[in-house]
Amino acid sequence: MCGEPIQDQTRQCVKNVEPVPTNPPAGEGSVLPIPLKGMKIAVSAIAEA
Q1: Per its UniProt entry, which superkingdom is the organism in (predicted)?
Q2: Beta carbons within 8 Å of 43's beta carbon, 6+ residues apart
């Protein structure tokens, strides 16, 4: 992440958002049932105008 404050991290996340494909992959929207220390995950964001 780009910075310590949550505002910096949120700003970077919004800058990195890409459009969701029309036919997203099967794993889109899946969640991990348990937290795993040190494991990095991808987060998708969907916005409608």
Answers
A1: Bacteria
A2: 13
pLDDT digits (tens, 9 = 90+) for 10-49: 777 777 676 666 666 665 555 555 666 776 666 666 666 5
As a whole number of Å, the end-to-end CA separation of the chain is 27
- Non-local (6+) Cβ contacts of 13 within 8 A are 43, 45
Burial of 9-20, coded b for 16+ CB within 10 Å and e otherwise, reads eeeeeeeeeeee
